[in-house]
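Appendix B: complex inputs.
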Amino acid sequence: MPEPRPLVQVRDLKMYFPIYTGLFRRHTGNVKAVDGISFDIMEGETLGLVGESGCGKSTVGRALLRLYEVTGGSVTIDGEDVAHLAPEALRKKRPAMQMVFQDPQASLNPRMTLADIIGEPLNEHTSLTSDQKLARIYELMDAVGLNRRFANRFPHEFSGGQRQRIGIARALALNPKFIVCDEPIAALDVSIQAQVVNLLEDLQDKLGLTYLFISHDLSMVRHIADRVAVMYLGQIAELSPRDALYDDPLHPYAQALLSAVPEPDPNAEATRSRIILKGDVPSPANPPQGCNFCTRCPKVFDRCRSEEPKLTEVRPGRFVACHLVTQEPTAGPQPAAPRHKSTNQQGVTP
Amino acid sequence: MPDGAAPVLDVRGLKTVFRTRGGEVHAVNSVSFHLHRGELLGVVGESGSGKSVTMMSLIRLLPEPPAEIRSGEVLLNGTDVLKVSPAELRKIRGAKVGFVFQDPMTSLNPVFTVGNQLMEPLIEHMGMTKAQAETRAAELLALVGIPDARKRLKSYPHQFSGGMRQRVMIAIALACDPDVLIADEPTTALDVTIQAQILELVRDLRHKLGMAIVWITHDLGVIAGIADRVMVMYGGQVVEQAPVKELFANPRHPYTRALLRTIPKLGGQREARLQVIEGQPPILSGEPAACPFRGRCTHAFDRCERENPARRSIDGKPVGQGHDVACHWTPEAADA
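Resulting structure:
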């Protein structure tokens, strides 16, 4: 197998939303939705991005595709810095990067037929004849398991799972390399979720797609992702290979988050010890000093309140931002071996 | 469980129909269940399975029309809620039956303080004076784990986070010490760490207060951790009902079996591919004459087309007491 190549490289990405207050709408502060995060996504890989609502995971997904103008940092997708591309070059880049949205109801135009919705990216970015276009639309509908007879129907005639298939077909229309899936199954029933997840996996195998899979469903992320990044309050707390994270989470927040997920097994539930976090997530407009988790961390100590921990590779392929883990002498950082996954992962800016 | 004691809530053959321009929708079809004091009944099912409509029918929260409760009995401590006068119904709602809704963001009134909303049922139903109600309200807020309760009574809902608002909703539902608490997806809108806090709180309160709870959810993980008994609903009907451990260890209905297989696990062996339930949930128009799950069932045979299966016991106990299932197919028949 060839050495995996990073398709997406994110370096020190910052996304602040300004707050304006008072009579003169003065700029008085920022909501730091994403505050300096760095990671890579390898070609053909699925990176899971998990966290609670408001932690900035959707903002990361949107900033990656430049649906927002980022505040700082760079997003390199397949060799080009998307965050700083000129408008015309960005337009040319768009076909390579697509998105599947959370709400299949809101992300489909109710007045367009299914063929119009799937065909719209083709109108915008290709010069196919109408016959070729229709052939491509049918091909896409086959790929996502929609009956060709439905081509002239409207979104409201479909169920949630089928609508999500339409959204996926639209995202696939231009043969993208990279797809951001922003909570693609959150709005679906349990019995339908598996259908959509299996479809996404099949398409990845067939087309060699790279996914950023954003979700708050940790069980589903365990199923679909190769590596998982846990976000808390705009920063990455831990980024680890899937099995390592689920078997032995290192960051206290990752530990608490995993222990909070209820398991469909009454015997396990009866004996399980849970880490119950106190309180709520602080406001991203006014994050705490030092480590952003220090207000709720059960293992907090003095250093956490003064010094911000950096995301550091503590074991091969495992990155953690926590003083408790990084200061352990036994689990110190590995010598900087020129492995792809490890290079440049810790927020090293040029 | 005290087998001899009469149940607090006994629902028999409840049928709710919605009249729409497109015809009748049979949302709840002959649902029966009962609940003892101190018991927590989990109700699982996907959207449209009729779980919320069933519970709202119990205390007649549905607008009539379009809804119509066509038949059935809802015995709350022996009185049929479906037959009482509007004045008596008012006394039952809030005082005898507490309700916690899914969305804590929209179920509190934004223009009144939290204290005001907590004191309202106390003054209305318990006949307390304002001062007494205020003391009791502060106690309730403290009970659900809100620090600095007395001061927080003067806060407005927007000053609380989602998890805290759900705690306030629980406090309001508990205010008059109801016999039955109905919680309709109370943690679905919350994050997992906050959900863990609320579940912990409910486990704790159950032991302290000993009331009967109906907990509606689509999350089998939540059910596994909190319920004594589980009722699985599909297409407006109860398809399976069993004690929680029995249901997870020995699911009998093809839908329950498929549902348990389709969800990925957090621990243990990671499945290479998720099992799917093919097809879509049924549309509940017309009198249900066939099994609602037949179109998606891998075991369906001609009888499922012809006859809607009745609930039958599989462990010898009367239907509703032990493990029962509404299905023509049996695993034993398949093995033979």
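The interface with chain A takes residues 46-47, 161, 163-164, 191-197, 199-200, 218-225, 244-245, 248, 258-260, 262-267, 270-271, 273-278, 280-281 of chain B (CB under 8 Å).
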